[in-house]
Amino acid sequence: MPNDLAADVVAARQALSSARADLDQAVAAAPEIDGEEALASPGLLALLLRAVSAKNHLDHLELSAGTVPNPRILQ
């Protein structure tokens, strides 16, 4: 794997880790509503979108680098 691609993969993994941590923190802070439906706030949706985007970016970089064991997971 070329150095620039390796650096991109490392950065993408860090971005995903940060996005997941922020999402986990926000979900943990949300009030529990037993048996009730609740709408996600715009901020929570933005965190979710950030995490999904970071995961997609990492998946594509790893596929480009040939480090994904099963490329079908990206289909």
Report on this model:
The model has no long low-confidence stretch (mean pLDDT 86). The chain has one domain (3-29, 39-67). It has helices at residues 3-29, 42-65. It is an all-alpha fold and 75 residues long. The protein is built from 2 helices and no strands.
What's the topology here?
Layout: H1 3-29, H2 42-65
Give the amount of beta strand, in percent.
under 5%
Distance between the termini: 23 Å
Q: What form results from the Cα inertia axes?
A: elongated
Averaged pLDDT: 86
The radius of gyration over CA amounts to 16 Å
- DSSP summary: helix tally: 2
Order of helices and strands: HH
**How many strands, what sense, and barrel or not for the largest sheet?**
none
Give structural attributes.
75 residues, 2 helices, single chain, 0% strand, mainly alpha
Give a summary of the structure in a few sentences.
The chain is an all-alpha fold and 75 residues long.
